[in-house]
Design brief:
Shape: globular
Distance between the termini: 22 Å
CATH topology of the largest domain: DNA ligase i, domain 1
Structural class: mainly alpha
CATH superfamily of the largest domain: DNA ligase, ATP-dependent, N-terminal domain
Strand content: under 5%
């Protein structure tokens, strides 16, 4: 599944503050996700790379993310910082400065590739790890469209701005696979527990 398909839904979710509408949008999204890629979509949509209890963190500070955006866009970091002071959101900055510049390195970004790339960013440690994180993140951003870059930049800073939490995910899954019934919702919640590694 292409990340652009996910981003088009994210944009609609971001534009609404109605929980029922968000649930419906996510349920429709889940209908189109290849079954093998559903875990990645569920995690990404919550701003996670693993169950919260696993403690997987990207370890990307604001300054590091800003540098990665500058590298991806082939712009001076000062120009990115200046735009960021106006926008107040690195995702918006990446999107707006990326128009006409992104993607720099096709082909289009796939969800599984993005997820694996973000996991690699999180795994980078030891000497030189900051530069490794910048390089890996810049590579992902360079393959993103401006709209995709908005959400990649927000994701790494933990500010996805979708308002999608576990309960919303469960409701959408129940709507998709259990007709929205309470019985179906209860069964999905039981299957979604920590023993399945999907909380």
């Amino acid at each position: 599944m292409r990340f652009s398909e996910l981003v088009s839904v994210y944009a609609m979710v971001e534009a609404t503050r109605k929980r029922l509408e968000t649930r419906t949008l996510l349920a429709e999204l889940f209908r189109s996700v290849p079954r093998g890629e559903l875990p990645e979509v569920l995690y990404l949509s919550q701003g996670l790379l693993a169950p919260e209890y696993d403690g997987v963190e990207l370890g990307v500070a604001d300054s590091l993310a800003r540098r990665a955006v500058a590298v991806a866009l082939d712009l001076p970091e000062e120009e990115v910082a200046l735009h960021l002071r106006t926008s107040g959101d690195l995702g918006t900055t990446a999107e707006e400065l990326g128009r006409g510049r992104l993607p720099r390195t096709p082909p289009p970004l796939e969800v599984v590739e993005l997820f694996a790339g973000l996991r690699a960013v999180a795994a980078a440690s030891g000497d030189g790890s900051q530069e490794t994180k910048i390089r890996l993140l810049a590579e992902l951003l360079a393959r993103s469209s401006p709209e995709e870059a908005r959400y990649v930049a927000r994701f790494v800073l933990g500010r996805l701005r979708l308002g999608v939490r576990e309960m919303t995910i469960l409701d959408a899954l129940a709507e998709r696979w259990a007709g929205g019934t309470k019985y179906g919702r209860d069964r999905i919640e039981a299957a979604f527990g920590p023993e399945r590694g999907a909380r």
